[in-house]
Amino acid sequence: MQDVLNLLLQDEPLTPVQRAALTKDPALRASVQRWLAFRATLRAHLDEALPERRIFVLHTLMEAGHADELTEAERTEVAASQGIMTRALEQYPALRDAADRIAEDRAVFMACWEQPVRIRRLTPTAWRIAAAVALIIGFGTVFALFFATNNAETPIAVRDGGLERVQLPDGSIVHLIEEGMLLYDAKDFARHVSVRGNAFFDIVHADAPFTVASPGAVITVLGTRFGIQSDDNSTMVVLESGRVSLAAEHALDQPVLLSPKEMSRVVRGNLPDAPAAVDLAQALHWTGYLFFDATPMFQVSRVLQDRFEVAIAVSEALKDEQVSGTFEPGDDIAYILTTLATTLDAVVERDESAGFIVR
């Protein structure tokens, strides 16, 4: 166990022997999943707090009294980003250790280049490039924790109003919506992901549980469809189908169990709210999915008309017929109508002037 934990702290990939140890020890596996979730969340927070790593290097050189090694434009950049740097250092004090290490390594590096025997002398510009690379690669535990990027980890993010469909290695589907962000290990996928923002999950059933870490919470499923809305302090889960457990990150042994058409919310530091019944169409409208559950065909036609801005006529004999189905954001109107009409043994006709006719 100690060998596995030591390797995790060093941010290295697991060997087959270590992966086998996790499989045999559920308690250790849970601890590892919490650590991976914490590490992913920390990285995401750092990227948000300090988006320009190059500026961090320039700021460190300025603070160490090497302003003469910066161009006028770079000094202007540092001055303009002073507020960002101040907030980042206040939020993550260990960044000061990273800055000290950069300054120390710069001094050693420059001293080596001052020796009589050398191929060329390092220029200030060359040093800045070296420092930037050093920051990305990382020095010691501070960089390993704060800045190192495991090549196996795949981060995916969408901006405001965006939509991204992600297929995971096990076949599960994640739709990222409106600044949603997903992080997972594509090389050695263990049915665990971290998410921030908004996302809708369609999880493939398997013997091994699927876990989702989000701010303040951990969601565990076997095979199901659910939506997550989260910010820095809370996570809300709405379950469409299957079953999931939702637990606070500090109290994994006190989860609530959600059944279809229920939701719960976790505020960081608190236990999950008791499950509450919801209307899926309303509770998950932000996903872009369409949910019909024993819905009369005339109501379906109204929803589709509003979504696709096209006229839809339904014959009198079918207006009160109930249909059910779930459709993804990318499904087009012809596919949706044809799928629903098939359940009623009906047909769909396209009319250039009248739009669609279901009869």
Give a written overview of the molecule.
The protein has 359 residues and is α+β, with helices and mostly antiparallel strands. The protein has 12 helices and 17 strands. Helix 2 (16-24) crosses helix 3 and helix 4 crosses helix 5.
Summarize the entry for a quick read.
This protein is an alpha+beta fold and about 350 residues long. About 40% of the residues lie in helices and about 30% in strands. The strands form 3 sheets. Strands 1, 2, 3, 4, 5, 6, 7, 8, 9, 10, 11 and 12 form a 12-stranded mixed sheet that branches. A 3-stranded mixed sheet has the order 14-17-16. The protein has a two-stranded antiparallel ribbon with strand order 13-15.
